[in-house]
Amino acid sequence: MTSTAAFLRSSLLMLGLGTLLLIGIVGYSLWLVQANRAYSDETASLRRVRSSIVGLLTTLQDAETGQRGYLLAREASYLDPYNKATADLPARWKALQDNLGPRPDYAAGLAELKIAIDGKMAELENSVGLTRQGRYDEAFALLSTDAGLRLMDRIREILSGYLEKTDDNLRELVAKQLSAADTLQWVTIGGAVAILVVVGGAILVIFQHVRDLSRAREEVMALNFGLEERVNERTQDLIRANQEIQRFAYIVTHDLRAPLVNIMGFLSELDTAIKAVSAYVMADERTPSEDEIREARLAVTEDLPEAMSFIRSSTKKMDALINAILKISRDGRRKLQPERIDLKALLEASAATVQHQLAEQGGEASIAAGYITGIVSDRFSLEQIFGNLFDNAVKYRMPGRPLKLNVDIRPDGPRRIRIDVRDNGRGIGQQDLERIFELFRRAGEQDQQGEGIGLAHVRSLIRNLGGDVTVESELGKGSTFILSLPTDLTKVFRSMDP
């Protein structure tokens, strides 16, 4: 008992530590994902700001170039850049206002910029108008005042300040994105390593417990050599416990490792996607190539969301697996409370919980108890056992056929009873009759929700009561779950004392 208690404490400690690590990893990863999304949105917004600034400056420069060409050459064809720039200017100005308006650190200079642009465009319009009228001397005189030059210099100064501020913000955001991605990668790797260490510690505890059980079996055989029947019973119990612990160790290592492998794989995809986005964002002095734009858009719209989705689903799966293992672990450490129970009344109460589902399909449940009136056992465990079996019968009924649920109670040797729970549902294939009692394992068509722990829970509970459960089934015809229980749980406890 001391060894079992130590095993349970160690197992729960390992599982608790693993759960805390997982919660920390998931929480911090989600925070980093949200931060990265905010960085990406701000980066896209600043790219639009930068584009509107450059677009306005280019338009004004084109207008000035067209004006000067026309004044020098006095040919209408030189006005094409000026005319196009004049037509595009309102849209360019509106784009700049829309992008800078919500930003107080930019918006303060918009009024002065507007005045300078209006003054510059008025100067350009006057000089072009004078040239069209043939008043060349007046046009050149207007140009020689340098008023337009001062206005243009002020416009360049304001827009250059905007550009410098935008580029600084972009560089800072890119650095934050790269830092967040690196942090997420290292947090996940570190957490994965820590969880693997915890799992390894749990496996070590399990195998130490197996070793202790083997030693205990040898001691019992030496002390009770003359009690052959008792030795055989204890030996079979230990062999079964060893097999279950080995299966449990395999399931823990296999099913918990799979989500970790998925997380590591999609972290690599996340790193690749970040590089593509960075190449696009950092193209400050040049226009990004079509390949860079395509790769950045693909990363933002597909690669990053896909990687985040798979990381989240893998961590959720790990959380579900750990919670299921904790549920099974609690069976072994809950203190049983034997009491006298009217078994037929308990079965009728359990069947009543699914009666409305049976009635909807035209089904029925019947309980035949014979002369057996009561047993001494743990009520909570029995309610859990029969509740799971009845729920499974309803869940896996044969479509189009009313469910018939029959329970038969009869003696099963000295101080034991047998309970047969029979249904006419889908049935179970012969190759899956033992598999269905394993943790996280399900059989047949997977069209119902579940984690594959219900029947593992049933077997764990009934074995804690000194009993066992098996199943007989045929596909398409139904299943019969056969439960064997002692009639008095207190006597079972005394017979198990060394």
Task: Characterize this entry briefly.
This protein has two domains: 1-333; 338-495, 2-Layer Sandwich (Heat Shock Protein 90), CATH 3.30.565.10. 71% of the residues lie in helices and 9% in strands. It is built from 13 helices and seven strands.
What features would you describe in this structure?
With 498 residues, the chain is an alpha+beta fold. It folds into two domains: 1-333; 338-495, 2-Layer Sandwich (Heat Shock Protein 90). 71% of the residues lie in helices and 9% in strands. It is built from 13 helices and seven strands. The strands form two sheets. The chain has a five-stranded mixed β-sheet. The chain has a two-stranded antiparallel sheet with strand order 1-3. α1 runs antiparallel to α6 (147-223) and α1 (2-73) packs antiparallel against α8. It is elongated. The chain starts with a helix and ends with a helix.
